[in-house]
């Protein structure tokens, strides 16, 4: 009986050891599965962040390309402004001279100026209206200050060179005369 009892006890101890080993193995596998799951979640998160960053980069690049295409003609437009200035001067001189002799010249200059205005409009170039406006250093360059008690200080009373904008951005500042007290 003792032998049987001992054998039973040995079998029970063996089973208990096997169960303990199985539980340890199960816990180890569980830890590995949990670790793999955590790593998988971290990698998914990294992937989603990388995809979002890629999408943001695409949007920034598209905006930069659009901005560059809108303002690419700025240098060309600045050169055209000189032509517009010369046309304005020619109109002033032709209008002040003998009207009979210069009528055809005056008409030709007016038509040329109108065509130039249409081209400016097509490319988003607009003339700034400055007379009577308050001085703004972002848009105007003061050439002279003149005492004028009829206007508040800092009011533009004369425009020496017209300022222009291209698609809402300054292309050239207006050169102006400003009132002072």
Kindly report the spatial arrangement of strands forming the biggest sheet.
Answer: 1-4-5
* SSE succession: HHHEEEEEE
Mean pLDDT: 82
State which percent range the strand residues make up. 15-25%
Low-confidence stretches: none
Description of the molecule:
65% of the residues lie in helices and 17% in strands. The chain is an alpha+beta fold. It folds into three domains: 1-72; 73-123; 125-181, Head domain of nucleotide exchange factor GrpE (Nucleotide Exchange Factor Grpe, Chain A, domain 2, Roll), CATH 2.30.22.10. A hairpin with a 2-residue loop joins β4 and β5. α2 runs antiparallel to α3 (99-122). 8% of the residues are buried. The model has no long low-confidence stretch (mean pLDDT 82).
């Amino acid at each position: 009986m003792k032998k049987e009892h001992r054998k039973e006890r040995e079998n029970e101890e063996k089973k208990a050891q096997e169960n303990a080993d199985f539980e340890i193995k199960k816990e180890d596998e569980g830890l590995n599965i949990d670790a793999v799951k955590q790593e998988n979640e971290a990698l998914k998160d990294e992937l989603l962040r990388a995809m979002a960053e890629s999408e943001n980069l695409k949007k920034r690049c598209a905006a930069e390309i659009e901005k560059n295409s809108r303002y690419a003609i700025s240098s060309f437009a600045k050169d055209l402004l000189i032509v517009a200035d010369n046309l304005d001067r020619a109109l002033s001189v032709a209008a002040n001279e003998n009207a009979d002799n210069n009528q055809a010249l005056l008409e030709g200059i007016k038509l040329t100026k109108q065509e130039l205005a249409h081209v400016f409009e097509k490319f988003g170039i607009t003339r700034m209206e400055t007379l009577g406006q308050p001085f703004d250093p972002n848009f105007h360059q003061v050439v002279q200050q003149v005492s004028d008690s009829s206007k508040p200080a800092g009011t533009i009373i004369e425009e020496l060179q017209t300022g222009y904008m291209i698609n809402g951005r300054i292309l050239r500042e207006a050169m102006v005369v400003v009132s002072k007290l």
